[in-house]
Design goal:
Blueprint (H helix, E strand, L loop, with lengths): L7 E2 L1 H5 L7 E5 L9 H8 L6 E2 L22 H10 L7 E5 L7 H10 L5 E4 L2 H8 L26 H7 L6 E4 L3 H5 L16 E2 L15 H12 L7 E4 L6 H10 L6 E2 L3 H5 L13
Length: about 280
């Protein structure tokens, strides 16, 4: 009987299944400051058989200037792209990057949004793979196109939802950015510094151990229980700068056994694009 991986997979577990016909590995490496980095890194060397998907071109939709830096892609467009690289509704997908899972978690969340739970992030990512196994390839595999049929899930909220509930107990908003950016300090990405009123801060890197692998589930559970202070996980909405690292916190809550949270995809970059929306600064 096959095992479905729905949160994390270890390098050893992936290695044992390399080449399996129902497994597809996706390289999600990216650099926000250098959009060409991922493709260059993939060409230099990747996990054998891995396909490449680009954060801007494949895992995000068109920007309008007011909908955030990484708006959600059109579901049908994304489904077609997944089919192009050999993913259908039965495929076990494994996503990886070299940044602690911050980009791989975006693909993990997007697939869940499309109704596909059989997706996991490689724990420790490219660095753990190289450290543990040291098996790389430069060959771009030929993919047999398949049909992926999306079944969209209600896993996101829009800016109006956040605007309506940001000061109420009906929503717990968690900001995944670094504490200084949350406070409105050292903002180098978005034109306005600060955070959405009512948001609390959980830096996504706090989900990781020093070696870049996720903390154990029981430790994550304790930390999120403390953060939530008795509030219902199903009332949680995660955001960050542009809806990318927020997915890391969503994955961490899933690992911790706290399902039901949703994503605000537009995040701070959408929120601060309208000067009429309130801005909070300082510590929570």
């Amino acid at each position: 009987m096959s095992t479905d991986f729905t949160t994390l997979v270890t390098p050893q577990q992936l290695f044992a299944r390399l080449g399996a016909p129902d497994w597809v590995v996706v390289d999600c490496r990216h650099d926000l400051a250098n959009p060409d980095f991922g493709r260059a890194a993939y060409a230099k060397g990747h996990i054998p058989g891995a396909r490449f998907l680009h954060l801007d071109d494949d895992l995000s939709g068109p920007r309008t200037g007011t909908n955030g830096r990484h708006p959600l892609p059109d579901p049908q467009t994304l489904a077609a792209r997944l089919g192009d690289i050999g993913i259908d509704n039965t495929t076990q997908v494994v996503a990886y990057d070299d940044a602690g899972g911050m980009y791989a978690a975006r693909l993990w969340w997007l697939l869940n949004w499309l109704g596909h739970a059989r997706v996991a992030v490689l724990d420790g990512g490219f660095r753990a793979w190289c450290s543990d196994l040291q098996v790389l390839d430069c060959h771009v595999p030929a993919a047999t196109p398949k049909a992926f049929a999306p079944a969209l899930q209600a896993l996101s909220v829009d800016v109006d939802h956040v605007l309506t509930h940001c000061r109420s107990d009906a929503m717990t908003l968690i900001d995944a950015r670094s504490p200084d950016r949350y406070r409105g300090e050292n903002e180098t990405i978005d034109p306005v510094g600060g955070h959405i009123p009512g948001a609390i801060n959980r830096f996504f890197k706090d989900n990781l151990r020093p070696d870049g692998r996720f903390k154990p589930a029981d430790q994550l559970r304790r930390e999120f229980d403390t953060l939530l202070a008795g509030r219902d996980p199903c009332c949680v909405v995660h955001q960050c700068g542009s809806g990318v690292t927020a997915c890391h916190n969503l994955l961490a809550m899933q690992i911790a056994g706290l399902p039901g949270a949703r994503l605000y995809p537009g995040s701070w970059s959408e929120w601060c694009a309208d000067s009429a929306r309130a801005v909070a600064r300082g510590a929570q």
